[in-house]
Amino acid sequence: MTTTINPEELTKLVGTVLGESAWRTVSQDDINLFAQATDDHQYIHVDAEKASTTPFGGTIAHGLLTLSLLPALAENILPRLTGQTISINYGFDKVRFINPVPSNSRIKATFRLLEAAQRDSTSYLMRHEVTVHLEGNDKPALVADWLSLAVL
User: What does the alpha-carbon distance between residue 20 and residue 6 come to, in Å, rounded to a whole number?
Assistant: First the structure.
């Protein structure tokens, strides 16, 4: 369940880890559907036989697929502000795809609040450092500075 906090409490959370998501499997079906939706059918994503001859040893998720899973991974982790009507993806300051995500592997994400500021009388801009962990690997799959706008 998502926690609701007063906007005044938000600044006290800057610098803290807000939470960690549950593990999520990135299946070959997920990868194929993403390829279909984006018209990115590069063989390293969709052709298991050909991808097996690459250094990856098999198909891997699109980096942008991993990035696009952040809202789902953030569900029930990031707090809502009292009176908040919507949260809007405001973009990214930095995104690094550090490690490939093999088909049928599991990922989870850690969210650290880096900044929080009242933008105007009805919105707060937040910047989270997000690290997507790959099960069984010490190096993360992805690290990003993710901006979101909480609208009251």
Answer: 21
Distance of CA 141 to CAs 32, 62, 83, 114, Å?
19, 11, 34, 20
Q: Residue 97: which of 83, 112, 107 has the closest Cα?
A: 107
Tokens standing for 121? 């009388």
**Coil, strand or helix: which one is 50?**
helix
Kindly list the domain boundaries of the chain, sorted by start residue. Answer: 4-26+60-151
d(CA 34, CA 65): 7
- How far, in Å, CA of 111 to CA of 92, rounded? 14
What pLDDT band is residue 2 in, cutting at 50, 70 and 90? confident
What architecture does CATH give domain 4-26+60-151?
Answer: Roll (3.10)
Q: What is the DSSP letter of 38?
A: H
Quote the pTM value. 0.96
Encoded amino acid at 83, one letter: G
Indicate the SS3 state at residue 131: strand
Q: 95, 86, 74: which is closest to 149 by C-alpha?
A: 86
